[in-house]
Amino acid sequence: MGNLLCCVQVDQSTVAIKESFGKYNDMLEPGCHCVPWFLGQQIAGKLTLRVQQLDVRCETKTKDNVFVNVVASIQYRAIAEKASDAFYKLSNTRTQIQAYVFDVIRATVPKLNLDDVFEQKTDIAKAVASELEKAMSHYGFEIVETLIVDIEPDVHVKRAMNEINAAARMRLAANEKAEAEKIIQIKRAEGEAEAKYLSGMGIARQRQAIVDGLRDSVLGFSVNVPGTTAKDVMDMVLVTQYFDTMKEIGASSKASTVFIPHGPGAVRDVAAQIREGLLQGSSTS
């Protein structure tokens, strides 16, 4: 019905190309237009001005001979003022853009090692955008944005990279664990040394207290019991200590069986042996 009345509707964000007897005549903007077909005028086609996106996957090789798939996302649109160029000069816009992307990526990536490709993907995107802008502006298209959205090495290379990373992290963890164990051992040794030092101080004070107590006991006994000598007092003290030791052995729940000679004569022998040991220790010191 629209063609019968010579009326044509052009939608928003779209332009129509009008021809007169097969020759470009005018560009029609959004709205309603009169196109008298009986005067040889017709609509050759319509061109969208919306931003379009093209994802290009390009396989190439890096400088260190690793094959990677580089995925570039190209966002482009037709320029309204150059709609005739965009409509007539290119038969397949997407194929043309893809060819330029392939050319730039395969000229840039082989100059970089694999690690540098990941680090410099922004520079690669800028190089692709610059080349596309220069080429496609002649055909009436504007490059809005160029992104390198993915870099995919071969699956075996990716696995090897993950293993290298994992090994490095395990080595770092092992070093940290060894350092922690070293600190623990140092602190434990310092603690044991301090404990032994304090234990030695305690034993020394205990022995000093025992000596002082024995001395006071001998002096007090000699004063209170006339006629006794220091030897008599020490014999009695040793016998008392002997019986206290026997009592402790018998009262302990973890005590083992101990076979010792016991009797008045044995007690005398024990006292004599202890006294002789003390005298020998005093003479050698």
Secondary structure tally, helices: 7
Question: How many β-strands, per DSSP?
Answer: 8
Give the biggest beta sheet. 3 strands, antiparallel
Q: Roughly what fraction of the amino acids lie in strands?
A: 15-25%
Using the alpha-carbon principal axes, give the shape. Answer: rod-shaped
Structural class: alpha+beta
Q: What topology, given as strand order, has the largest sheet?
A: 3-2-5
In whole angstroms, the N-to-C terminal distance is 133 Å
Order of helices and strands: EEEEEEEHHHHEHHH
Low-pLDDT residue spans:
none
Radius of gyration from the alpha-carbon trace, in angstroms? 52 Å
Helical residue percent band = 55-70%
Overall average residue pLDDT: 81
Structure characterization notes:
The chain is of the alpha+beta class and about 280 residues long. It has seven helices and eight strands. The strands form three sheets. Strands 3-2-5 form a three-stranded antiparallel beta sheet. Strands 6-7-8 form a three-stranded antiparallel beta sheet. The protein has a two-stranded antiparallel sheet with strand order 1-4. Helix 2 packs across helix 4 and helix 5 packs across helix 6 (about 230-250). The longest helix has about 70 residues, at about 155-225. The protein is rod-shaped. The termini are far apart. The mean pLDDT is about 80.
